[in-house]
Fold this protein.
Amino acid sequence: MISIIIPAHNEETLLGGCLARLLDAAGPDGPVEVIVAANGCRDGTVKVAEGLRADFAARDWGYHILDLPEGGKPGALNAADQQAQFAMRAYLDADVTIAPDLVKRTVAALNRPEPAYASGAVRIAATGVVSRRYARFWGKVPFMAEGVPGCGFFAVNGAGRARWTTFPDIISDDTFVRLQFAPEERHLVASSYNWPIAEGFMNLIRVRRRQDAGVREIGQKFPELLRNAGPAGVSAGDKFRMALGDPIGFLTYSSVALVVKLLPAPKEWSRGR
């Protein structure tokens, strides 16, 4: 019924936790397959994935490991898509951990004939003081708090997956997929997942620069998708109220955003943590 695709590049330390939570998840009423697309790994990512093969077999879930020599997330997604046998697809980052009912609720939300996109509520995970403050405020921004951003986990049904062919060689695959769907076609399920962000002020800047560059790239290469972006920005009044509610978080978030605007776009890929 659903193929769950997990691209992984040098994720030896985090992939095991991602897969363990997936193994603990409640399954939908139908078959499930999991595809780990290890790409350009120079660590024990593939070994970690292989170590859980018997556990997936015990659940009677299909389980495939692709050991791809070339790095790059778009290539990993495309290779896994070619392997996948079910039209319904979920795309899960290897550092994300899901709630036990996320898969089952996502499948239920996508079980409809018209094109649909679904994700759960994002719980931004951070441990350091600066990143916790940034995450606390970022989580209140309407795009994160009221929308269906799909950061780290998103899924589409067969009719939705037919809206694009292969993943293009771009920075932001999640934005590319989300904007294939109008706001009313995007469904927030009553479940959640933990999505880690970068730790420390400089790392937040590095990753935020990359995120902003990814959004700009979508606008440049696929301007027709911007019609699905929904309401843009936050009003001055909303910003003021949010700042009053969390001045330290606002200062942290705004400082990162300001520095990013003053720096040129980066040329190399950066992790989200």
Notes: Residues 201-221 form the longest helix (21 residues). The first strand starts at residue 2 and ends at 8. The mean pLDDT is 94.
